[in-house]
Amino acid sequence: MAILHLRAKPNARANQLLVTADGGVTIRLKAPPQEGQANAVLLAFLAEVFDTSRSRVQLLSGHTAPFKKVALADIDEARLRAILARYQAE
Predict the structure, then answer these.
(1) Number of independent structural domains in the chain
(2) Residue 9: φ, ψ to 5°
């Protein structure tokens, strides 16, 4: 199981994952930050990015904050790093 620390930014034009040069992860989400809508979109988007089922992605902390901790049950650290490398900013 891999743990992903990220910053979520709701109300974006499109869902987008960005990785900075220092390894920071930001995810822009189309959903508003109301009634858990952004968190639901976040977890579904991460399931899609990491090619796993939505039930294997769990929000551990940051339910009402921009900084979140997410568990990816079927992903190991090597696969996590390899997938995030695809989104690394040049």
Answers:
(1) 1
(2) -125, 105
Q: What is the pLDDT of residue 90?
A: 58
Residue with the two structure tokens 């034009």: 13
Nearest to 31 by CA among 49, 18, 15: 15
For residue 15, give the CATH number of its domain.
3.30.1200.10
Return the pLDDT at 69.
98
Residue 67 Rama label (left phi>0; alpha psi -120 to 50; beta): beta
Question: Can you tell me the distance from the alpha carbon of 44 to that of 74, in angstroms, rounded to the nearest whole number?
Answer: 15
User: CA angle, corner 34, sides to 29 and 38, nearest 5?
Assistant: 25
**Which parts of the chain register pLDDT below 50?**
none
63 part of a folded domain: yes
